[in-house]
Every structure is written in structure tokens, then in C-alpha cells.
Fold this protein.
Amino acid sequence: MIKRSLLLAATAVGLVLGLCGCISLNGAEAASEPKPYGPVPTERQLRWHAMEFYGFLHFTVNTFTDKEWGYGDESEGAFNPTDFDADQIVGTARAAGMAGVILTAKHHDGFCLWPSKYTEHSVKNSPWRGGKGDAVKEIAAACKRQGLRFGVYLSPWDRNHKDYARPAYIEYYRHQLRELLTNYGELFTVWFDGANGGDGFYGGAREMRRIDNRTFYDWPNTWKIVRELQPMACMFSDAGPDFRWVGNEAGIAGDPCWATLDMTKPGRYPGGSSQGLNSGERPGTAWLPAECDVSIRPGWFYHASEDAKVKTPAQLLDIYYKSVGRGACLNLNLPPDRRGQIHGNDVASLKEFRRILDATFAKNFAQGARLEASNQRGKRWAPEAVLDGDRATYWLTDDDVKQAELVAALAQPATFNVVDLREYLPLGQRIEAVALDQWQGGRWVQFAQATSIGNRRLIRMPEKVATDKVRLRVTQAAAAPAISEFGLYLEP
Ligand code: FUL
């Protein structure tokens, strides 16, 4: 009897909640669920956003022939790393703070780093490990051991294959894709390069072969294979479907850099034009955030002649702030050398880069601040969420409030030169401009401003700011701003 009345009461409450969805149990008015603005990310894209920083590993016959683009006629015998060490490679990426690596399983020259069943042009005919080696397997296993995610680059352009530019090649390409998608554990990405240079070996033909990027690869059906076999893998091409090229190979995102793109524009297909990719488009028709790819050296592959041209820690930091700090992901290439390891110069530069980043983000000076917001949408969306280190919680204003302020009275006076902001992505990219003020001599003085935020905005200031009160102002937004994180840091 008691049980039954409880059940009835619960049903009644449930009904009331279900009917109006806006009355809380204590009778007070609570706000309704917020509606997303514009295109929103998928679950797999959210996982990708959370990675922020990962690496490319460009490695193949080119490493031994000293080329950037192999012609496709390289002997399998050329591939012979003297001391291949997947743990050293992946360990270097891990120590640098990377969340994953993407290996060039096959570059444009067509040589396969795994013993594909569908070609003789692979490690199986190389002297490395007596023809029994599988570099894809070794890197994937090292990633698993060291807690990194793994992805593959499978060049659509193949300058070795006799059927390239004919329908039979698509079949070949898909067989290879299936091998990579089924034999190497979970992949976080499949990276489809857009380069199609034309001439090549092509099984001995040594000729120019042109294809129409838009139709030849029949991308929709190739993508289906990835979705079927690796549903959580994000696919890259110049224009998606899951993340986009940033339009340059310098690792620099636009400012602003919107996470959305208008896919109705001409050239919006894999390998299409790079127009608009650097800054994205707003409001856009698809959530298609940017990846900034860049090599730690001038070339993508290892060349001893570039040993003294490794990017310095200061250059890497600059790239980090202009990629991750503009809401994109950074894909930094580390090319294994002829031993099959990351060269000491690269290791040293990465180590110092990481040391500075760790020192910078060790302490959030906003932590413990007393927060006061000009508006909040009800208890569940209180401003304290911006300091809880959890990107799933956020401060949100009422629907009609698109400009809002958050004053943070710091626990102690602080000196900082980096501001860190994140939007709550499942509600779409809403904020269009923010400004920051410091309390100085009894008044507010602006010290920074920014446009797009998205996954993350890092504002790196030329001067340090010393204050005990900071004001964050959302000065322009397309919908009620939803901010999930806020931080103040000091780069040493
Ligand atoms: C380009 C390629 O042609 C380069 O060799 C490299 O792989 C880079 C990441 O993408 O399009």
C-alpha cells in the first residue's frame, strides 16, 4: 500500500515535470533546457576535440632515399631502419604531451609499412626484421602500452600502383583500408591526404595520370567503410567529414577560427579548394573544426640535412598558442630517422617545450575566486562551473541574454599572462567576442580581447597583468553564452 502510493506520487511528479519541464520539485521556477545554436559536434568529434594535441609520424622509403615524395619506383630493399624502436617514438610523443599519433601507413609512393595482402610493395619484401616486420603493428602496440590513441594516414594517391586512376585502384585502396581498420585495434582517426600530383611509376608506366578528386575516389562509399568498422574514428580530409585542414602547413589557425563550415560552397569536397578553411565560416552548415598540421622540421620526412633546423621550443609554443589556443587541434609531425627513432634534437626541443607548458598550466590563479555573474539561467548553470575543471559543466545565461559579465574576485592578488577559456561545445559555437578587464586603481581597465572560443581560446599576453579582480565580458554572442572553463595562468 505504502509502496503503491509512493509510486502514484512519483508518477504524478513525473507527469508534471514531463508536461511542462520547467517546474522544480521545491516549486521554484527553473529554466528550461537550453537549445543548441547552429551545427553541433558529434560524440566522436567531442572526443577528438578533447585530445587537442597529437602527432604525425612520417616514415617510409623516403626516410632512406632522402625524398619528400617518392616516385613509386623505390626498391623495397631501401626500407631498412637499423634500430626501429616504437616505444622510443611513442614515448617521445607521450612525453611531449601528445594524446595520440598518426602513422603514414602508406604515403604517396605506395610503400606499405604493414605486410598488406594486396601488394608486394611493402615491408614484407624489405630487409627490415627479415621481411617479418609490421611497423603499423609495432606503433599501435606501443600506443596501447603507453596510453596514446592511434591513427593511420593512408594516401589516396599511389604512385606505385599500376591501376592508379582506374576503377580497379579503388577496390585495392578499400582492401587496404579494411586491413588497417580491422587489424590494429581502435583508431582515433583516418587521415585522407588531398595531394594528387599526377606523375608516377604506376607499375612501370612512368606517366602522368590525372584524376578528378571529386569523383574518382567515390568518397561517400569509402567513408562508409570507416564508419562501419571504426565508428569512433574521425576522418580528415581538406573538407571533412569530421575535421578539416586549416589551409596551411605551418600549424597556424585563423583568428577567428570557427569550428563550422558552409558545406554548400564550391570546392567543399576532399581535396577541394582551401578557401575559407583557415577561419571557418559562420554559422556554417556543418561542425567541421580545424586541425593544424605542421612538421617539427622543414620537411615531413627525416633528412639529416635538417638536423639543425628543428623548430625551437619558442617556435613550438607559438604554434601551440595559435592552434590549440584558437580552438583547433595541433597535429605536430615527428619524423623517425634512419634508425627508426626520433632524433635527439627533436627530443630535446620537445622536452623544453613541454616543460614550459607544464610550468605555465600548473596553477590556475582564478581557482578559489569568488564569482559574480550578471545573469545566470538557474542553479544548474551557476558560474562556479567555470572553475571545476570539468568541461561537461558550464555557466549559462538566459536565452535573451547574449552579453554577460563574470567578475572573479581572486583569492589572492595574482600575476598572470595567459587566459584560458572554453565553450560548452554540445550547445554549438555561440560566443563571437569577449573582453577581459583588470581592477586597477579603483576602475576596470581592459587588458585583452578575443573573438572565437570554441574548444579552447588561449590569450597569450605580451605583458603580465597583476590584479586581485578580473572581469570577463562576453561582448557578442549568437545565443546565450555557455562557458565551461576559465583560467588565469603565468607563463614563466
Ligand atoms: C601533404 C603531403 O603531400 C605531404 O607529403 C604530407 O604528407 C602532408 C601532411 O600532407 O599533402
Remarks:
- The two ends are 68 Å apart (CA to CA).
- The chain has two domains: 2-33+364-489, 43-360.
- The longest helix spans residues 2-20.
- Residues 21 and 33 are 8 Å apart (CA to CA).
